[in-house]
């Protein structure tokens, strides 16, 4: 019990330290701009106000992500699972991102969704949240090449199914982007962890999205993994129970 309590306290200290670190950067930027506007060293204008708005939005995203992760870890975020055909949901999310790629010849978004995929048991809103996060990350870190989404079953390999023997459907989001260094791969689902902290600050990442994805997948009876090679791309793979649930 003493060890458990010490572990909880250690995680609490780490969370506070990480959160303080993440909040400091946008707050420092906002403070610097406000001081410059006050003493006249920075001219007021759309560019300055736009930067202040972006930093405020980054703070809001961070607060929202921390709040959601706290609810997930405390078990306060409900999962409303139901029988669900996954391909229409995947196409809906991909169509949303495809619109952003119009006119871009260097990057493609493709899907591989067999017609005979069985229905899954999951929460449509939470599955969509996982897909949006994975696709956002893949597109952000892929300057050229392709991002693909594939869904499939792997019923022959029962050893890789859930421990209860539940049959699973797998969804993969793959890219040909920057990839992740081998020593960094084990940490990608840790909250506030990022391989390139300065780059993700610029792009608005909070370092919490993949932690939220992992917890959402786990709450729906699945698992999430990643395979990656530096300079070649990454593949994130998550599973959902096939309906009916055992």
Keywords for this entry:
18% strand; five-stranded mixed β-sheet; 246 residues; 6 helices; two-stranded antiparallel sheet; 7 strands
Q: How does the SSE layout of this entry go?
A:
Blueprint: H1 2-39, H2 46-74, E1 82-84, H3 86-98, E2 107-112, E3 120-122, H4 124-140, E4 145-153, E5 168-175, H5 197-203, H6 209-219, E6 224-229, E7 233-241
- Count of distinct strands: 7
Structural class of the secondary elements?
Answer: alpha+beta
User: Which term fits the overall shape?
Assistant: globular
Tell me the fraction of residues in β-strands, as a range: 15-25%
The helical percent reads 40-55%
Main β sheet profile = 5 strands, mixed
Q: Radius of gyration over alpha carbons?
A: 20 Å
* Tally of separate helices: 6
The succession of helices and strands, N to C, reads HHEHEEHEEHHEE
Walk me through what this model shows.
- The protein has 246 residues and is of the alpha+beta class.
- Helix content is 47%, strand content 18%.
- It has a five-stranded mixed β-sheet.
- α1 (2-39) packs antiparallel against α2, α3 (86-98) packs parallel to α4 and α4 (124-140) packs antiparallel against α6 (209-219).
- The longest helix is centred in the first third of the chain and has 38 residues, at 2-39.
What is the structure about, briefly put?
This protein is an alpha+beta fold. It has six helices and seven strands, in the order H-H-E-H-E-E-H-E-E-H-H-E-E.
